[in-house]
Structure formats: structure tokens, C-alpha cells
Design goal:
Layout (H helix, E strand, L loop, with lengths): L1 H17 L15 E6 L6 H16 L5 E6 L4 H10 L4 E5 H9 L10 E6 L4 E7 L14 E3 L8 H10 L8 E3 L3 H9 L5 E6 L4 H9 L2 E3 L4 H10 L4 E5 L11 E5 L3 E6 L4 H13 L1 H7 L21 H9 L5
Parallel strand pairs: 1-2, 1-3, 6-7, 6-8
Antiparallel strand pairs: 3-12, 4-12, 5-8, 5-9, 10-11
Helix pairs in contact: 2-10, 6-7, 9-11
Length: 326
């Protein structure tokens, strides 16, 4: 709250100056630093790289407000939600599927967490991959194998569980292994796992690394099961990985967005701060794109897309101001 108070004071000073609020700039003090934190995920995945890109853009284009934004490596969405709630993080990236259940206090969450969306970002195009020739051709073939299902504590079970269930498979049908996306590549490279679940914005660094070192098979989703998921959950949607995105991938992969990446904050976050962050990132998205192609998702059609979590009033105010809020 002290950070927010300083921020509001800085905005007032900036507005006064821009309106010719008297006096000379000579000898004016530099704005006080406003320290902000951005939760990401473990290194090796898209969240870490993209969260760092957002923080850099906030620092560069929020310089007049004295912003100093730090991108923090975390275990992922679950930790981010809890730490935003406790006030340890100001903003964070989260998977929309995980936030969906968190704000409702369902599927194992101990309470309804007061999270709000700031902007919907890149689709989280996730899938099971396996070495070519492993014998694992379909999701049903995961039975009886060792399978990587994401980092411990990141919350992958919130979308992997429903995805498996739609195919008639459960975690009890195989041996689940927890690993970061970077480590997941090693699991299938040395035969420790038959398949791993990886994904994020396209291109995904872990999949790029895996495809560079071996021939991999993208395990397809059953068409009926995929449609069932889309119909049942607002955060599931169709997603295509274009042909030749990864080495050896000669055909487009018709997959799933299993819960888009989105930028979240607390429902109690200062409206002026959230407005300014939304404005800064939206109007300087080109700089984010320079850091990661997923920045292209910061566009008029996508940022306001409903994934099941209410938007923060500060973000809504900016989107209304530029005429894109429905």
C-alpha cells in the first residue's frame, strides 16, 4: 500500500507539471522509486521470458513515474496467485485455467482468491510430446508409462486433469513425474519418461530445444474430446501450431489453448496503478514483441478476451477510454 501511495503522489505531480503547475523545473527532485514485482515461473518456459519482457517495458516506459519493476522467478501460477493475494507480488502471470478455479475457490483451493485480470495474453498451446518411435501415439497410450506433467506446485493439474478425463484417462493410469519445462526435455531425451506435457506461447523454448536434439511426435487430441473441453470450460479454445514452427514439424498441429497466459493483480490493487500499467504495456507492445513474439497478443481483440476471471476496474477504465471494451 505504501508503494501505491507513492505512485498516486507521483501521478499527481506529473499531471501538475504537464498542466504548467507553476515554477521552474530547475532544481526539481527526481521522482521517488516505485518498486513493483512481477511473478513469472521457472526459467526454461515462456512465462519467465515473457514476464521479464513485460517488466523491462514497464521500467523503460514508466521511467517518468520512477518505476522499478523486478521479474521474479517462481514455481508458476499457483504460487503467483497466493503471493499476489498476500501482497508479496504486485502483478503476476498466470494460466487462465488455474486462475479460473482459484477465484471460485474450487477444485482444491482453500478459499476464493480475489484475483483480477489486467490483460489476456498469449494462448497457452500445450500438448504431450514423445520421442518419435516411442510407441506412444495417442493420449490413451500414456497408460502404464512414466509421464512428465509439469512442475510441482505450478498447477498444471488444473488443466491436465480435465484434458485427460475427456480422453478417458486419469493420473492413476500412469506414473506422473514433476519437472520444469526445461527438465522435461531431459526426461524424454534420456528415456526417463515416455512423454511429457509442455507448452506456452508459440514458439515454446522447451519444445524448440527438444525438437533440435531429437525427432519428436506431437501426440494429437481426440476431436470429440477436444470439443467437449471447449464446450465445458471457457478457458479451453482451439489453437493451431503452424507447420514448420519446430524442426521436423512439417504439418500444422491442431491443438488446444489450455488456458491463456494472462496478467493478474489483486482486486484491491490501486486503480490508478493498474490503469497506468495497462496503458503502458498496451501502448508499447511493439517493444515487448522485440523480446518475445508472444507480445503480439497485446492487441485490441485479444487483451479483453474473457477467460473466466473478472477484469480489474483500472484495466477496464483504460480499455473503455480507447474504445475497445465491449
Amino acid at each position: 500500500m505504501r508503494r501505491f501511495g507513492v505512485f498516486v503522489a507521483l501521478v499527481g505531480s506529473a499531471l501538475a507539471a504537464s498542466c504548467g503547475g507553476g515554477g521552474s523545473d530547475e532544481g526539481a527532485a527526481a521522482p521517488s522509486r516505485v518498486f513493483l514485482s512481477m511473478g513469472t515461473a521457472p526459467p526454461g518456459g515462456t512465462f519467465f521470458v515473457f514476464g521479464s519482457a513485460l517488466a523491462e517495458a514497464m521500467n523503460e516506459f514508466g521511467a517518468d513515474l520512477g518505476w522499478s519493476t523486478t521479474a521474479e522467478a517462481t514455481s508458476g501460477s499457483q504460487e503467483n496467485i497466493r503471493r499476489v493475494d498476500s501482497g508479496e507480488l504486485d502483478f503476476a502471470l498466470s494460466n487462465a485455467a488455474i486462475t479460473y478455479f482459484a477465484v471460485r475457490g474450487s477444485e482444491g483451493w482453500d478459499k476464493a482468491y480475489p484475483m483480477r485480470s489486467v490483460m489476456t495474453l498469449a494462448p497457452n498451446v500445450a500438448l504431450f510430446i514423445t520421442p518419435a518411435g516411442s510407441g506412444v501415439e495417442t493420449i490413451n497410450d500414456l497408460r502404464g508409462n512414466r509421464v512428465g506433467v509439469g512442475p510441482a506446485g505450478a498447477g498444471f493439474e488444473y488443466f491436465v486433469g480435465p484434458l485427460l478425463a475427456a480422453h478417458g484417462v486419469s493420473f492413476d493410469d500412469f506414473t506422473p513425474l514433476n519437472a520444469t519445462q526445461a527438465s522435461a526435455v531431459d526426461l524424454i531425451a534420456d528415456g526417463s519418461a515416455a512423454a511429457v506435457f509442455v507448452g506456452g506461447a508459440v514458439p515454446n523454448p522447451a519444445i524448440t530445444q527438444s525438437a533440435a536434439s531429437q525427432d519428436i511426435h506431437f501426440i494429437p487430441f481426440d476431436a470429440e474430446a477436444k470439443q467437449q473441453l471447449i464446450d465445458e470450460y471457457v478457458f479451453f479454445s482451439p489453437a493451431t501450431i503452424p507447420a514448420n514452427t519446430y524442426r521436423g514439424q512439417t504439418e500444422a498441429y491442431e491443438g488446444l489453448d489450455v488456458g491463456s497466459m494472462h496478467l493478474i493483480t489483486s482486486a484491491n490493487a490501486d486503480e490508478g496503478l493498474v490503469y497506468a500499467v495497462t496503458k503502458t504495456l498496451y501502448e508499447n507492445s511493439a517493444r515487448v514483441v522485440e523480446k518475445h513474439a508472444a507480445g503480439r497478443a497485446i492487441n485490441a481483440r485479444n487483451v479483453i478476451r474473457d477467460t473466466g476471471t473478472e477484469f480489474h476496474p483500472g484495466a477496464i477504465r483504460y480499455y473503455q477510454e480507447i474504445g475497445i471494451w465491449p
